[in-house]
Amino acid sequence: MEEKNVTPEATNFIEQIINEDIAAGKLRPEQVQTRFPPEPNGYLHIGHAKSMFVNFGTALRYGGKCNLFFDDTNPSKEKTEFVDAIRADIHWLGYEWARECYASDFFDTIYEFAERLIMEGKAFVCDLSAEEIKNTRGTLTEPGTESPYRSRTPEENLKLFREMKAGKYADGEKCLRAKIDMASPNVNMRDPVIYRILHATHHRTGDKWCIYPMYDYAHPICDYLQGVTHSLCTLEFEDHRPLYDWVGISLGFDPKPRQIEFARLNITNTVMSKRYLKKLVEDGKVRGWDDPRMPTLSGLRSRGIPAAAVRDFCARIGIAKAQSECEYSYFEACVREYLNAHAERAMGIVDPLPLTIVNYEGEEELDFDKNPTDESAGTRKVKFGKHLLIDRSDFSLDPPPKYFRLKKDGVVRLKNAYIVRCEGWNTDENGNVTEVLCSYLPESRSGSDTSGVKAKGVIQWVNAKTCAPAEVRQYESLLRDADFPGQDFSERMNENSEHIFAGAAEPYLAEAAEGTPFQLLRTGYYKMCTEGEKLVLSEIVSLKDNFNKK
Ligand code: ATP
Ligand code: MG
């Protein structure tokens, strides 16, 4: 028995359908073929990660194939820049396609099939304008009106269609429509346009064509020609399935690819439409498609979010038929969980305040756990000394109740080091604290504490003499919460979504490989990067859920 012929157990409704097809003898498991079909009119976003998870993931489960299929039927919006970015993003997410193809690879066959439909009386050339077609389409409750050109003979249609192809007509002057049923309860079946005239240069076929097939007509043909068995798409195409099937049946496809729809990924406070993301880039609201605040895959990558965490998120939200909205905090929780297990710990200070230990002289090296959740990670040394930096928020002259950090006469433990007691502070002429003065308890060293003193709080620090200056960047959502429903995205822009601090970090961080993620203790997960000479610590995700706090 060959292992690969075993049907895996279904884990979602798509796999159930595929298993039924396998059980009915329509195909063997390893013949399952899907395609990921981006339109190269922008960068991929996190919603596409779900689509990839479904398409590549399903093929992988059956030992089948998934193609990368570029839907480039719309010449005016598509660009090679986007094709390259899409390829890179798929690889980043960890998927490999079996074959790369383009709708435009099939333009010749798509055209021949249209001639065949014409000759069989299943398509006609229509002279109505787009406006007139729209106005004669009818409504959900009323049938549409048949076009006066509907009864042209196949020969006349063929002649006109060839003239359309030859460039005899201007954009919109004519179109080719499928001849289906103007009274169909499904509006998509009311003689849909399947070819339009568009004198536009295509990014791959150049000026070869001045007529282009419509998506609904081209897609089932491209699926069939690639050998796709299950065409997995999002729910908005459910009403288009009868047309998908009509094309397959009319052209006699055997085996006919089967379209299955699943729910889109929606995330609170996150806009994924490419049109909107493009506008953010064009209006300079962000630095580019790969800005770390963008929900694009290249944005997530520059944010430092691990691809494995994105895949894990997709696996956990699951594949369903019902529309739903996922909390952004759930995505962050997946990222945090991954980084908690994989990121080394380090100390960094966002807003440094000098702390001097008045009774400490010399220096020593202390043990520091690289990752307490991972025993094999081991320890490293950190240099302790008389002059340290702590975070300004960890010292208060006017502490609220239950403030367990440093305050007048208070004690606190310096992480992995000693307990210190606040003895005083210095201020500038405006009364701002410029330095905290402490004494330390020599017997309180972490791991061998015999001081008998209990410190309720633990704070992080860096050695002022050896630390590396670091620019710390923190982010907020690009959008404020909607104040009222229907508010436009442009009215919801958070103009303050990036915060930059002059911080400091252990020298260890400056020596790490570019892009390494760290958990900065008590602060968050940060990606280490350099910009010229400058060390930058860029926030990946906070330690706690900021969004609910705000
Ligand atoms: P956008 O509206 O962002 O432009 P799109 O659907 O037009 O998205 P395509 O490039 O045409 O983007 O999409 C490629 C595939 O990804 C399609 O099968 C589409 O259904 C799927 N997809 C897009 N957005 C999502 C999402 N939020 N969740 C799941 N799948 C998605
Ligand atoms: Mg689209």
**Multimeric state of these chains?**
single chain
Structural class: alpha/beta
User: For the report, how would you describe the main beta sheet?
Assistant: 7 strands, mixed
Give the DSSP E fraction (strand runs of 2 or more residues).
15-25%
In short:
It is built from 14 helices and 27 strands. It is of the alpha/beta class and 550 residues long.
What does this protein structure show overall?
The chain is of the alpha/beta class and 550 residues long. The chain folds into three domains: 14-98 and 216-326, HUPs (Rossmann fold, 3-Layer(aba) Sandwich); 106-213, Glutamyl-tRNA Synthetase, domain 3 (Alpha-Beta Complex), CATH 3.90.800.10; 344-542, Beta Barrel (Ribosomal Protein L25, Chain P), CATH 2.40.240. It contains 14 helices and 27 strands. The strands form seven sheets. The protein has a seven-stranded mixed sheet with strand order 10-25-26-27-23-24-11. The protein has a seven-stranded mixed sheet with strand order 21-18-19-20-12-15-22, with no helix packed on it. A four-stranded antiparallel sheet has the order 4-5-6-7. Strand 19 and strand 20 (433-440) form a beta hairpin. Helix 2 (46-62) crosses helix 11. Adenosine-5'-triphosphate binds at residues 37-39, 47-48, 50-51, 233-234, 264-265, 272-274.
